[in-house]
Amino acid sequence: MKILALDLGDQWTGVAISDPLHIIARPLTTIVTAKLNPFISSIVKEERISTIILGYPKTLKGTESDQTRKIKAMGAALQAIW
Predict the structure, then answer these.
(1) What is the Cα 7 distance to its own chain's centre?
(2) CA distance 45 to 24
(3) Which residues contact 25 (CB under 8 A, 6 or more apart)?
(4) In angstroms, what CA-CA distances link 44 with 52, 64, 67?
(5) 64: confidence class by pLDDT, cuts 50, 70, 90
(6) Are 67 and 57 in contact (CB under 8 A)?
(7) Residue 75 near residue 54, CB atoms below 8 Å
(8) Residue 3: which H helix or E strand, with range?
(9) Cβ atoms 76, 28 nearer than 8 A
(10) Calculated CA dihedral for residues 14, 42, 33, 30, nearest 10 degrees
């Protein structure tokens, strides 16, 4: 089983995937965020994904930003689906 890592953005999402032993992750692709759900559906089956992790942006002071709150909402939506 592999881990899928997502760097969620308003327009684009960066995607990385681990090896089966979870030692190394490599960049996979960048996709349009609006097409994220169908992409995840297919990649989870094709690559046998066991875990999905999200990038968690913070400000330089370590506090939450507007983008952090957007990521939390998107993460909750993804968690409800998967």
Answers:
(1) 5
(2) 20
(3) 3, 5, 16, 17, 18, 19
(4) 9, 29, 26
(5) very high
(6) yes
(7) yes
(8) strand 2-8
(9) no
(10) 30
Separation of alpha carbons 22 and 24, rounded Å: 6
27 pLDDT band (50/70/90 cuts)?
very high
Half-sphere exposure of residue 52, counting CA atoms within 13 Å on the CB side?
A: 24
The whole-model pTM stands at 0.85
DSSP symbols for the chain: -EEEEEEE-SSEEEEEEE-TTSS-EEEEEEEEGGGHHHHHHHHHHHHTEEEEEE-----TTS---HHHHHHHHHHHHHHHH-
Q: Take residue 54 and report the two structure tokens written for it.
A: 């999200």
Q: CA-CA distance, 4 to 25, in Å (whole number)? A: 9
Q: What mean pLDDT is reported for the chain?
A: 92
pLDDT at residue 78, as a whole number? 81
